[in-house]
Design a protein that fits this description.
137 residues; 7-stranded antiparallel beta sheet
């Protein structure tokens, strides 16, 4: 099993950041390469459409409002992995703002561990860069 973790410190309160990223269907609000998200099954399944028109289907596994985190798995996607599970968390850093942590665990399928890890590391890093830009950080 492979994993990656990307973090980004932001000069905004954890509450402010969580209001933007905490909705399972909110990716289009801060992630430009995912312009469309449609939720179903009472908000537990999201179908994402990327800029190229490809779809990714993800299932909400856990949601913790007080901890400002949620975890999800991939139900269907064009990624070369199985057993994918990811967590997005916003950590309160008090007067220093917040830290956003995006992590994932997965088993590479048809590619090496380094390649699969680099793929998700790049996705998470680009996502947190986009979040910072959206927030003007």
């Amino acid at each position: 099993m492979a994993s990656t973790l990307v973090t980004r410190d932001l000069p905004h309160s954890a509450e402010h950041v969580w209001r933007l990223v905490g909705g399972f269907g909110s990716l289009p609000d801060w992630l430009p390469y995912i312009p469309h998200s449609e939720t179903s099954e009472g908000g537990r399944l999201r179908t994402l459409t990327d800029a190229d028109g490809s779809t990714i289907v993800e299932r909400l596994e856990t949601f913790d409002e007080s901890a400002r985190s949620y975890s999800y798995s991939i139900a269907r996607a064009p990624f070369p992995v199985t057993g994918y599970r990811s967590t997005l968390r916003v950590v309160d850093r008090g007067a220093d703002g917040s830290r956003v942590e995006w992590s994932g665990f997965f088993t590479p399928d048809g590619v090496g561990e380094a390649e699969a890890t680099a793929l998700f590391d790049g996705i998470y890093r680009a996502g947190l860069d986009a979040l910072a830009e959206t927030l003007g950080a």
